[in-house]
Amino acid sequence: MRWFLVFLLVFLIFNRAGAWLQKLGLGRLPGDLRFSIFGREFFLPLASSVVLTVLASIIMMVF
């Protein structure tokens, strides 16, 4: 359940801050899905969320 909440938060962050995170290189990894339906663009950052989750886990282990 905890990992589900982490992934949900990462998806929300990516959708809100997508343009800023793309400048950092996140959101363009080979597992991130971007598609358009009815003129609206949707973005599922699967690979980027895994990378951010691993980074967050490493940071939590260090501290």
Radius of gyration equals 13 Å
Number of strands: 2
In N-to-C order, the SSE pattern is HHEEH
Structural class determined from secondary elements: alpha+beta
Biggest sheet: strand arrangement: 1-2
Strand content: 15-25%
On the 0 to 100 scale, the average pLDDT is 81
Portion of residues within helices: 55-70%
**Broad shape:** globular
Q: What is the domain tally?
A: 1
Tell me the distance between the termini.
23 Å
Low-pLDDT parts are none
Helices, by number, come to 3
Notable traits:
globular; 19% strand; 3 helices; 63 residues; single chain
List the helices and strands and how they pair.
Blueprint: H1 2-16, H2 18-23, E1 32-37, E2 40-45, H3 46-62
Protein name: DUF2905 domain-containing protein
InterPro entries: DUF2905
Keywords: Membrane, Transmembrane, Transmembrane helix
